[in-house]
Amino acid sequence: MSASGPAAVIILAAGEGTRMRTSTPKMLNEVCGATMLEHVVMAARELSPARLILVVSDLDGQVARFARAAFADAELVVQERRGGTGHAVRTVVESLGVIHGTVVVCFSDTPLMRGSTFAMLVAEHQAQDAAATVLTVQAPDPTGYGRIIRDPAGQVSGIIEQADATPEQRAITEVSSGMFAFDGDLLADAIKRVPTANAAGEEYLTEVPAILHADGYRVGTARCDDYDEVQGVNNQVQLAQARRVLNDRLQHRWMATGVTIVDPASTWIDVGVTLESGVRIEPTTQLEGSTAVAANATIGPGCLLRDTTVGAGATVLKSVCEAAVIEAGAVVGPFAHLTPGAFAASSGGSQQADPDKES
Prior knowledge:
By secondary structure, this protein is of the alpha/beta class.
């Protein structure tokens, strides 16, 4: 890792995500106003990597088109067949060559990952002078996860996948998140030797630690204390759960700055929303997109604001406002509909917008 960040972050985004049962690729489903892929990229960018690499299934597909528009600096690598996570990383090495320095590998369907956790992973990787460092977590139910296998000295000797584990190994609760930091040179050598002798017949990236351990290199671990953070989203139930967790995080952050949220359970806030101290949000309110609310304004109950600017001390009650501007001190609602471009002016701080006003 250089002074500014790791040599590369590789994000695996070639999965089909058929269990989502939507025409939208899994990683392009939104969580609190941003796609899962955007959440992962935002977290990865906190590392200031020299290279951002996305593995996609098709350069003309939805994911690739979205990535080119959203992440101009990203390098796209095509994984033409679904050969497993190891095959995806091998495809990167074969396409781009050996990446010297620290290489982080992560998934595109983990929208709850924090940049601070990626930073901790890289810091532990450096501190342990490891060839590979796996991000681990203690799982309340380890079903489906790769188990961390340690040698008699307590060092990581490998990771065994659920389908290939013995009953004793399945009882292990320290599991792999599937996210790693690697020495790029050693990764390039080991990834060529990943076997396919497993239940799925795929090349698992989780085989690389065992290869490196057998070569005499150190494999380290970095512990994530938040089980929710490493959860992948594979279906609509998990997507809804991720939205709730992230929405709770966002609300806690805003409340810590002096925002009053009367009923967090019925309030939804997107990641692009900004709120100033003294704002009061009443129940059953949704704040979406780039909505910005100035100090001491009151929103709700029963409001939907999308890409709307609200001035200081304004009040919006039981209304829908889309790409509108609400002046400081203005009163909007109840039952107003401000359409894109609408402007709600203040008249002594008490002017009320007409219901269903069109711009």
